[in-house]
Amino acid sequence: KKKILESFEFSDRRAALIARTEMGYAYNAGQVESLRAADIPAVEVLDGLSGDSDQPCLTVNRMIISPENAAGNLLGHPNCVRSFVPAIIEDGQTVEFNDSEFLRWASEKT
Question: Which of 1, 3, 79, 83 sits at a 20 to 30 Å CA gap from 35?
């Protein structure tokens, strides 16, 4: 019984991994829903910026995708640090908003 309780399955490290992963899902779901509500047509994936990322995360980093695709791909794996920021395509160019521009743009949409 002691070996079971001391294993990774019941460890503080596993509890932290689960908590970070669930928090990541919740945060990204809220972020994507906010972007949808603001009628943001495209989002940029930020993944692989932590310095110790794996190849799948580095591959999707900086990709421009629809909010619908973002909602279906909130995280790449447990403990993932993926996030999304607003992006818009104009004349084939990607334009990133900073916070103040985004808030001004969102307020003009309402």
Answer: 79
